[in-house]
Amino acid sequence: MPCRNENSMKTIVILDDKNHALKPVEYEFPNEEWFNYSTFHFDTFELYNRQKINQIDIQFLDFFLRKDRIYGKDIIANLKTKILVCFSSKKEMSDAISQEAIKGGHFQYKNVYSIQKQKSTFENKELGRVSAEITRRLNDV
Length: 141
Description:
Elements: E1 10-15, H1 22-28, E2 37-42, H2 45-51, E3 56-61, E4 64-65, E5 70-71, E6 81-88, H3 91-103, E7 112-116, H4 125-140
Parallel strand pairs: 1-2, 1-3, 3-6, 6-7
Antiparallel strand pairs: 4-5
């Protein structure tokens, strides 16, 4: 079991027009074992901007934000996070956002993940695998 330090509280922000990502993230991310975290969900980019969270460790971003009528790839430059998780119901859409984040120079390859949402269940084995990798990396920082 990894050592925990006093500064182990992390922030996870989900930007998704529906709450399809919220429950899987809460289900798949380990809590006490690796670190404590706060999770915030915003269904519009406008609400996300108004909140002004100081430090975001992990940002989940959907491909299309219907309420704003904007694409996730168009707001990548405005995200202030250590790790970006592109999380869409279609894998190719998640891949498109992640490629834009890397190609545009906004994120390093090692800090971007592309995962397909599983809307029918909270369990998402790919998200579970990635969450374990992310939490180990953040715990070592």
